[in-house]
Design goal:
single chain, mainly alpha, two-stranded antiparallel ribbon, 15 helices, 2 strands, globular
């Protein structure tokens, strides 16, 4: 748990806090696949397997039932929660101005903030939710044209949310899938890619570790970044795993992201 707390800020997107160079050379596999990395990966696999085995036990069933009871209202009102959260998100972007979806995607285009405010307004009514989804796809494409595919590869979750809004508003289930599952998978892919960046571009986090050396809890920056990447990848992969494992991972990830707010403040 101490390691999880220490990696909270590293799990937040480093591009929001530090200078970065997307044209820089990533580390090769021979530099990443060291003994420490292999031990960490092995431990992560053991944790996933333990979660799967525990799920079939009476304790696992009891935990699932308890989570079902606690989250009944959330599961019942998921769509409302998504609409309110996204509405607040887009209103915040409008208030800050000069941002396309995320803090590091800057723009001087004057109508972008107002466009995002319009997307928030479309979330008020269920029948206009698909317009917000299409608007997110447009913003994602607009940002891709400005910043490149590699940069926007950090954010497939936005496309997952867009699909959710379109499908939910039109009562569609593509390939028989729940729209919420599409969001979950896109979030998992987003976080897994972010963890890969921690291994490939650990130098992006050097300024952050220099400013806050206590984050490493005495470990070397190299080991800390390897551990942060493994933890984030494991929790992200767990989001597409079995019901109990993915719920536990979601709770831990939420705690990590909230703790990062206390460490760094709102962006």
């Amino acid at each position: 748990m101490a390691l999880l707390a220490g990696t909270s800020s590293a799990s937040a997107h480093v591009k929001w806090f530090c200078a970065y160079d997307v044209a820089g050379q990533p580390r090769g596999l021979e530099q990443v696949l060291c003994a420490n990395f292999e031990w960490l990966a092995g431990l992560a696999i053991l944790c996933l397997m333990f979660g799967c085995l525990a799920e079939g036990t009476p304790l696992g069933s009891a935990l699932l039932n308890a989570l079902d009871r606690v989250t009944t209202r959330i599961r019942t009102d998921t769509e409302l929660l998504v609409r309110v959260t996204l509405g607040f998100f887009f209103v915040s972007l409008w208030g800050m101005g000069g941002i396309i979806l995320t803090p590091e995607l800057k723009t001087d285009v004057a109508w972008i903030p107002w466009f995002q405010l319009g997307l928030a307004a479309c979330l008020i009514w269920r029948r206009t939710m698909p317009l917000t989804g299409l608007g997110i796809v447009f913003l994602f494409s607009f940002a891709t044209a400005q910043y490149g595919v590699f940069h926007l590869a950090d954010y497939p979750v936005f496309l997952g949310v867009a699909v959710y809004l379109v499908c939910q508003g039109l009562n569609l289930k593509p390939l028989g899938l729940r729209p919420l599952d599409i969001v979950r998978w896109s979030a998992a892919i987003t976080l897994m890619w972010a963890s890969v960046e921690k291994w490939a571009y650990p130098q992006w986090t050097d300024p952050l570790l220099a400013a806050k050396p206590q984050m490493t809890m005495g470990a070397t920056p190299e080991l800390f970044m390897q551990a942060a990447g493994v933890i984030e990848f494991t929790l992200a992969f767990a989001l597409i795993w079995t019901p109990l494992v993915r719920r536990a991972a979601a709770i831990i990830l939420a705690a990590i992201f909230v703790s990062a707010v206390f460490e760094f403040g709102k962006v």
